[in-house]
Design a protein that fits this description.
single chain; 7 strands; 216 residues; 10 helices; five-stranded parallel sheet; alpha/beta
């Protein structure tokens, strides 16, 4: 079956940590810095944030699946950390800077150039507010036909439904689609559905593998 569509992950693929690797790699350093800033013992802020996540999860709320609003998440953040509004605002700015990382400009340009030969989409396991923050920084909607965020869909990779939903919206079959992701479990799930799936390891490797797949 000829390839008609290309779908990319965002974090760890089009967005990279400022020091290399995927954006989430920077969160431990950010948390450590904020523990010092707030006068907390090492590991204390991290423990509070984990407890907050578990509490929200117990209430059936998840920022990754959109069952928790951004406002609810921020209210819980202030409650468990004891931050005042100014501190919370600064923490959230740092959070989004780490989350969005730095642009992988070479791969973004490669992806943008795939249109109009192919239908294209971005498929991300995301968090409430991600569309706003990534749009402000990278204007992804200008380079792709579709962006699918887990927090807007209520389902996340590797759930087969989110792959199927993405292809349905593009108007293509699963086996007509190439998928690029930096998480092996997501790649395996896509392959199990019949998609052409490539594991991102670095930009040069990803482009070479994509070229080989699209050329074939």
């Amino acid at each position: 079956m000829a390839v008609r569509a290309v779908v990319f992950d965002i974090g760890g693929v089009l967005e990279m940590a400022l020091t290399g690797g995927e954006p989430t790699a920077g969160f431990p350093a950010m948390i450590t810095a904020w523990e010092t800033r707030l006068g907390l013992a090492p590991g204390e802020l991290d423990a509070r944030l984990h407890a907050m996540d578990e509490q929200l999860h117990g209430q059936g709320k998840s920022g990754a699946l959109g069952t928790c609003t951004e406002e609810e998440w921020l209210a819980e953040l202030r409650a468990v950390t004891g931050m005042d509004q100014a501190q919370c605002d600064a923490f959230v700015r740092d959070h989004w800077d780490v989350y969005c990382g730095a642009a992988n400009s070479e791969l973004i340009a490669y992806f943008a150039a795939l249109r109009p030969r192919y239908r294209t989409a971005l498929l991300s396991n995301s968090f409430v507010g991600a569309r706003r923050e990534e749009q402000n920084r990278y204007h992804f909607d200008a380079i792709t036909d579709l962006i699918v965020y887990s927090h807007e869909e209520g389902i996340a990779k590797p759930d087969p439904r989110i792959f199927q939903r993405t292809c349905d919206r593009l108007g293509v079959r699963l086996d007509e689609t190439v998928f690029l992701d930096d998480f092996a479990g997501h790649v395996a799930a896509a392959r199990a559905l019949g998609m052409h799936a490539i594991l991102f390891q670095n930009t040069a490797q990803a482009i070479a593998d994509l070229d080989a797949c699209l050329g074939a």
